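Quick one, C-alpha cells below:
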C-alpha cells in the first residue's frame, strides 16, 4: 500500500504573527532590506509633501524594486502581484500591497536618486570586505529599447510620405471646395481627414528636422576626428621623416541635400538607435556599459550610450572611476577588448594613472602552442604609450591579466540577460534608460554581495 502525506486544504491555521518569522535567517530578501536600511534615503523622503493620505515609505518601495530586479521581476504589475503571491515580497512590503501605478510612479520619479545610491552600495560592499578595486574590466552589451525597429522612419521614406500626404491634402481641399457638387464617398469626413493628414505632416516635419540636426552633429564630430587623424599622421611624418603607409584618411561627407537617405529616427523612442545585435541582424537598442571589478564581479561604474560601438567609452568610464570616493580604493589597471582600442584611449588611461590592457586586434580562440609559450620580446626603448602597452600584453603577466577580462564582465551580462531575463528597458529615453541600468546593476551588486558575504 502506498504511503503518501495527507493533503488537507480545509483545516484553518495561523501564520506566524510576525512577518520577521516568515523567512529563514539567511535570505536575499532580508539582506536587501538590511542594505537599504543602511542607505541615506533623505533625498527621497524629503520629496514628499507630508500632506494628504499617508504614503508608502521609500525604503519599502525601493526594496520591492531592488529585490524584483535581483530575482527577475521587472514589471510593476508583476511586482504588485508578487506582493500577494510571494512570501519574500510580502516580507519586504510588510504585508502591504502597493498597486502597480504607485510602484511605476516611484521608479520613474526617483531614477536620479537611485543612480546616486549606486555608490552608497559600493561603499557598503567595501565595508563588508567583498570589494577590492585594483583591476577593472570594461565591456558593453546591447539592451533592447522599449520600441520596435519597425517604428523607425528613414529620411528618404519620410520625404516620400510627406509628398503623398501633401497630394492627399490638396485632393481633400479640392473636394471641400466642390462639396455641393462632388461625390464624397460615404463615411468620409473631409475636415477630419484633413486634420489627420495635417497632424501627420507636422510630426514628419519634426522628425525630418531632428534627423537633419543629428546629421549635422555627426558631420561635425567626424570632421574633428578627421582633423585629429591628419594631425597624428603629420606628427608621425615629422618624427620619422617618412610618409606613413596607407592612404590618408578621407574627410567625412555631408550631402548638399542634408542627411543620408538611410538616416532615421524612431517615432516611439527617438533616443534609441538601430544597432547590430549578437547572433546577427539589427534591432532598436541602447549600448549598456559596465566596468566590473576583477575578483568580486561587482559593477563599479555603469552607463548607457547611443553609440553602437565602444570606441568612445574609455574616457567617460575613466571619469566615472576617478569620481568614485577615495575610500573605495584606486583603479590600477583597465581591461578591455579590441572594440575599445585606439591610440587616444591608451593615452587617456596613462594620463589618468591607470595601466591599460586593451587588445589591439581580435584574439584567436585557440592560439598555437608555440605562440602561447613564446619568449617575451625585449621592451622597446623610449616607447610611446601604445608601444608600451603592446609589449605589456605580450608578457606572461600581461597575458594572464588580459585573460581575466572574459571571465569578469561577460558572466555579469550573461546572468543579467539570460538568468534574470533583463533584455529590454521598461522606460523610454536615454536618461530613463541610464537610470534603469543603474537600478539593474545596483540590484546585481546587492545580489552578488549576498553571495560573497560569509554565512
Amino acid at each position: 500500500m502506498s504511503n503518501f502525506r495527507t493533503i488537507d486544504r480545509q483545516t484553518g491555521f495561523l501564520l506566524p504573527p510576525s512577518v520577521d518569522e516568515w523567512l529563514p535567517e539567511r535570505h536575499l530578501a532580508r539582506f536587501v532590506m538590511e542594505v537599504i536600511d543602511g542607505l541615506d534615503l533623505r533625498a527621497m523622503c524629503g520629496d514628499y509633501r507630508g500632506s494628504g493620505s499617508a504614503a508608502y515609505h521609500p525604503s519599502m518601495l525601493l526594496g520591492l524594486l531592488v529585490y524584483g530586479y535581483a530575482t527577475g521581476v521587472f514589471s510593476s504589475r508583476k511586482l504588485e502581484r508578487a506582493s500577494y503571491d510571494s512570501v519574500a515580497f510580502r516580507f519586504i512590503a510588510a504585508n502591504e500591497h502597493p498597486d502597480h501605478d504607485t510602484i511605476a510612479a516611484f521608479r520613474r520619479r526617483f531614477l536620479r536618486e537611485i543612480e546616486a545610491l549606486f555608490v552608497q552600495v559600493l561603499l557598503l560592499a567595501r565595508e563588508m570586505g567583498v570589494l577590492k578595486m585594483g583591476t577593472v574590466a570594461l565591456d558593453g552589451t546591447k539592451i533592447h529599447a522599449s520600441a520596435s525597429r519597425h517604428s523607425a522612419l528613414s529620411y528618404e521614406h519620410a520625404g516620400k510620405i510627406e509628398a503623398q500626404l501633401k497630394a492627399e491634402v490638396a485632393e481633400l481641399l479640392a473636394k471641400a471646395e466642390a462639396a455641393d457638387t462632388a461625390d464624397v464617398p460615404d463615411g468620409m469626413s473631409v475636415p477630419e481627414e484633413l486634420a489627420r493628414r495635417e497632424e501627420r505632416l507636422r510630426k514628419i516635419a519634426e522628425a525630418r528636422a531632428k534627423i537633419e540636426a543629428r546629421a549635422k552633429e555627426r558631420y561635425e564630430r567626424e570632421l574633428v576626428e578627421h582633423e585629429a587623424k591628419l594631425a597624428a599622421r603629420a606628427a608621425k611624418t615629422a618624427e620619422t621623416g617618412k610618409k606613413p603607409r596607407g592612404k590618408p584618411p578621407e574627410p567625412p561627407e555631408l550631402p548638399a541635400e542634408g542627411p543620408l537617405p538611410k538616416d532615421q529616427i524612431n517615432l516611439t523612442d527617438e533616443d534609441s538607435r538601430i544597432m547590430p545585435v549578437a547572433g546577427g541582424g539589427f534591432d532598436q537598442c541602447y549600448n549598456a556599459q559596465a566596468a566590473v571589478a576583477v575578483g568580486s564581479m561587482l559593477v563599479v561604474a555603469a552607463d548607457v550610450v547611443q553609440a553602437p560601438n565602444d570606441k568612445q567609452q574609455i574616457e567617460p568610464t575613466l571619469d566615472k572611476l576617478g569620481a568614485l570616493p577615495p575610500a573605495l580604493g584606486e583603479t590600477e589597471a583597465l581591461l578591455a577588448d579590441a572594440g575599445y582600442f585606439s591610440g587616444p584611449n591608451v593615452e587617456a588611461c596613462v594620463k589618468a594613472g591607470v595601466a591599460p590592457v586593451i587588445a589591439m586586434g581580435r584574439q584567436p580562440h585557440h592560439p598555437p602552442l608555440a605562440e602561447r609559450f613564446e619568449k617575451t620580446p625585449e621592451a622597446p626603448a623610449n616607447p610611446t604609450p601604445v608601444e608600451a602597452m603592446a609589449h605589456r600584453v605580450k608578457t606572461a603577466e600581461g597575458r594572464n591579466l588580459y585573460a581575466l577580462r572574459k571571465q569578469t564582465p561577460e558572466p555579469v551580462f550573461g546572468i543579467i540577460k539570460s538568468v534574470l531575463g533583463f533584455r529590454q528597458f521598461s522606460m523610454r529615453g536615454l536618461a530613463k534608460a541610464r537610470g534603469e541600468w543603474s537600478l539593474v546593476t545596483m540590484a546585481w551588486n546587492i545580489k552578488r554581495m549576498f553571495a560573497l558575504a560569509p554565512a
